[in-house]
Write the structure tokens for this entry.
Amino acid sequence: MHPLRKNAVASPRRDHPPLPDDARFDSVAGVWRTERGLLADDKEFDRTSKKMDLETGEDEKGQ
Amino acid sequence: MMPRAIEVLIATSLYDFPSDRLCALLEERKVPFARINRETLAELPLSLDPVAAVLSCGAPDWRWEAGDKLRSIWWRQPTFLRNTPGAALSLDEQLSRSQWSGFLRGLTAIDGARWINPPAATYATEAKPYQLRLAAKLGFNVPRTVVCNDSKATEGAGDPFAMKSVDTVLLHDEEHQYFTYTNVVARASLDDAEFLAVPAICQQFLDPKLDLRVTVVGERIWCVAIHSGQGAITGDWRTHKRADLTYTDFDLAPDIAERCVRLIKELGLTYGAIDLAISDDVVHFIEINPTGEWGWLDGPDRPIAKAIVDELCR
């Protein structure tokens, strides 16, 4: 097996990141909101970035 | 009712959370904008007039027009199709993917707006050999690099060497996804026949090293050094748990900082995330990502979102 495949890190497949139950996307304002406010500012959820512990190429490269 | 003339178009993904911050800042500045997400394009009645270069949204409760008043486009879309999906796509899914991708590419007809970044510039920059060549021409120290599927040719990178993918490796099967980081590889471990199957970037292994992430927005620049709790990081810092990593502001030498800004300009970009590494007191250029993530560094000390919005509103 090629090293690029042998050394690949496996993780459960997911189509989108997990979100709080009360998260709603406001399409006019262009932001995710929860009862606590903007999801992007929610330290508890800590999804201000997609740079999670697991790199998944989420910086809009893959499709 | 006349459609709202927007001044900024945010074209991204539904799950691009840092772009929420841009939208919130645009709202705060009362700049008319619209955000479109590729996952939900089919929910919007969109029309593009390619000759007039106008994109319109005819949703009854959200009518807007991106035309003469449009200043800029924040572009966070794939510039080309990369990996094949892990499961077969239905005919409708194949049709949707190919045609929406083409529609988004067609937005390049809107040539009066400032694109951050222009899709063609992003496309070119995604080729690592191209960016390494340009970086070297600008005076950066580039680690010895060979892009090859010939195991003998890896001698040029030293032993052991850092093996990287030529393009992002994100593979899927029914249950899992697979991502490949940079790995340190000993030449003796290579199987010639297996290595022949796929090209890879083989690069001088820098160890010990200090990783730097440089974020450039126009003329503005921020640099952080990345440390782990255990001290120096061997190999790819992204394999470390986030809680074990710290990011501290780092003063780049003025000539290196100037070179980073020049690189962005030469590549035709406004935004870019550059990885550098210091080893043996030499600053090495590792790579530039024209779509690199920035939300994890944004904050009061590094107001990246504000800088991006400044550029979008120029």
Chain B touches chain A through 69 residues (CB under 8 Å). The longest strand of chain B covers residues 220-228. Residues 87 and 174 of chain B are 6 Å apart (CA to CA). The first helix of chain B runs from residue 17 to 28.
